[in-house]
Amino acid sequence: MVSKHLRSLHFLSRDEIETILELTRDIKQKPAEYAHTLAGKTLAMLFELPSLRTRNSFETAMTQLGGHAIFIKCPPEESFPEKSRELAGFVVDTWLGTMESIKDKAKVLSRYADVIMCRATKDETVEALIKYSDIPVIDGMTPSFHPCQALTDLFTIWEKKGRFKGLEMAIVGDLGSQQDGANAANSLMIGCAKMGIDVTASCPEMNRFMPYGKPWEWALEDAKETGTRIEIEHDPQKAVKDADVIYAYYQYSFEAGPEKMRERMVMFPPYQVNTKLVDQAKPDVIVMHCLPAYRGLEITDPVIDGPHSVVYDQAENRLHTQKAILISLAKK
Length: 332
Ligand code: CP
Known about the structure:
Layout: H1 14-29, E1 42-47, H2 53-64, E2 68-73, H3 85-88, H4 102-112, E3 115-119, H5 123-132, E4 137-139, H6 147-161, E5 168-172, H7 183-195, E6 198-202, H8 213-226, E7 230-232, H9 236-239, E8 245-248, H10 258-267, H11 275-278, E9 286-288, H12 301-304, H13 311-330
Parallel strand pairs: 1-2, 1-3, 3-4, 5-6, 5-8, 6-7, 8-9
Helix pairs in contact: 1-6, 1-13, 2-13, 4-5, 6-7, 6-13, 7-8
Bound molecules: phosphoric acid mono(formamide)ester.
Phosphoric acid mono(formamide)ester binds at residues 51-54, 141, 149, 290-291.
């Protein structure tokens, strides 16, 4: 990888992405050959939000590469009621952005670790880590991006379909959530644009559910450069017609509260990825979801457990892709 950090795929060339995917394939085929590749290296993992896949795949990746990962729990201070913040200090490892500056944290971790990975509630946190860190920083999910998930998704598509060019992908869900950020969808659309996968983005016709801002501009810019088609189609039945890949994306957010959930219960049922919708796509369509999934809401059990689903392979591939990312960055 030419870039020192991993933040947006917009800043990687097609060749750089291909190099990571080829390394991922080699690692997946011959894991024993990489058992000592990162011996003596340490990954510092800062998590402001919970994670099953990202945390465990990175930690396992470091173990299997001969290195070590340190988990640093740092939920945002404001996520605790004001009265309990002092007590909360006993159960968290550190706070990001309060008490100690991001600069000091980045400088200190740079003296111990070889790579920093951070899942943060604000884009600015990872941007500040990148600014001040003397070692590579990986965006482990921020409101705008989820590059590790997107690289895994591209690898899974390549593994299942053997190519990128000429494939049609439909991404169905909330593609603009201003609250949590449509991070994985943003990164995936940029990745598809770079690699030549045509994308139909399907979401309700309301501004807050539609792609927006810099990530969307970058996806369109990258698509223009590679001659790839990216368009929005609000009718999910039309969006998935003849698709090679259906990507079921988040539609419900229980954290958003009962009022917003009620609105979603009205807006999103037509976008549920169910058997009827999948039947509109090509017979060999693959169905993806980055997980965690709201089963029975955005995707049904017969689809996620059915013959088109590749969600567990996709989740497994997080491990192999993280290894390729870590090797590419830590060896710099
Ligand atoms: N897809 C994903 O990033 O999962 P986690 O939130 O469990 O890490």
